[in-house]
Amino acid sequence: MQEIHIEMTAKTPEVNLDHLSGKLELKGRSIPENSIEFYSPVFAWMDDYANHPKPETALHIQLEYFNTSSSKCVLDILKKLQSINQSGRSKSKVYWYYEEDDEDMLEAGEDYQAIIKVPFEMVKIKA
Amino acid sequence: MFDIFDFYEKMEDGKIMLSFKGEITSDLLSSILKILESKLDHTGDEPRLRKKVYNVLVECLQNLYHHNDGADTNLPGADQSALFLIGRNSESNYRIITGNYILNSNVEGLKARLDKINSLSREELKAHYMNTLNNDEYSGKGGGGLGMIDIARKSGHKIIYDFKQLNEQFSFFSLIITIAP
User: Fold this and answer.
1) In the A/B pair of chains, how many CB contacts fall below 8 A?
2) CATH superfamily ID and name for B19-179
3) What string of pLDDT tens digits covers the 181 residues of chain B?
4) Is the minimum CB–CB distance between A10 and chain B shorter than 8 Å?
5) How far is CA A51 from CA A1, A25, A78, A81, B41, in A?
6) pTM for the whole thing?
7) Chain B contacts of A31, Cβ < 8 Å?
8) A10 closest CB neighbour out of B30, B142, B154
9) Which strands, in side-by-side order, build the sheet including B16-22?
10) Is the CB of A67 less than 8 angstroms away from the CB of B143?
């Protein structure tokens, strides 16, 4: 399997998926018109990674904006992480970043936290 | 009658930040969002408010992009252009207005969804959002019905809407979103 690195654009986030370190990262903004198209390679990579994960997996989500069509995709990524975690093969954790004054982004993280059975850490960053 | 000078003056003193009528394409969305992000940065408003407005803008514009029934020009009476306007009223509230053609057959469903959203409290909206998010359904466009719920949550105001029937096939759907500082 291969790492994935996707550069950030005005509408899509930087994506780094590293099976050697178990570090998965989404960073930037996610507001594409067609988010399923953008996230399909991420879904495919995670399905592959689920077969031979590292003992620990950390998913870092640092989004400045995301649209509602991305929000479904983010949930699917989290659900894939949840199954990896529940398989017992990789201890998983989500790091959810939000700017200190961005209550909406904190609340969005808490919404996911309520649905997904993986430990979350809310990480406050300076605006 | 529409007064162009009045419109010009309103634009000049910042009440109308941007207005547009025409076909909504992906490139156009990118340009409008870029312009408005830069305008929002210069308002001096708190980042929290600017982000809220930007988020609602993205959803409103993408609604126009995905759900413009008039874009199907094979239908009689179709008009593929949509209307978009953002401005501020005298209380400094942001106002976002959109307008687009909708098939008469889609009116009832959308109206029911909007009425439901408008009937919910803040906490109920959150629950409705999470149920819709987690229902495993994607719409053809990806959002699966989350857009309007998210707009209502972020704006904190009731959604004002209107359907004006134009002919046997189409109605004109207009939407007014308010975001208070």
Assistant:
1) 76
2) Histidine kinase-like ATPase, C-terminal domain (3.30.565.10)
3) 557 677 667 766 668 899 999 889 999 999 999 999 999 999 989 999 999 999 999 999 999 998 877 766 666 666 778 999 999 887 789 999 999 999 999 999 999 999 999 999 999 999 999 999 988 666 555 556 899 999 999 999 999 999 999 888 889 999 999 998 8
4) yes
5) 10, 19, 16, 12, 45
6) 0.90
7) 33, 58, 62
8) B30
9) B16-22, B82-88, B94-103, B170-179, B160-165
10) yes
| Spacing of C-alpha A4 from chain mean position | 13
A68 CB neighbours in chain B (<8 A) are: 59, 143, 146-147, 149-150
Residue of A10, A65, A75 with shortest CB distance to B134: A75
Give the closest-approach CA distance of B81 to chain A in angstroms: 18
Q: Which domain holds residue A56?
A: 4-125
Q: At what angle do helices A68-86 and A35-49 cross, to 10 degrees?
A: 10
Sequence ranges of the domains in chain B? 19-179
Judged by CB atoms closer than 8 Å, whether chains meet at B142 and A127 is answered as no
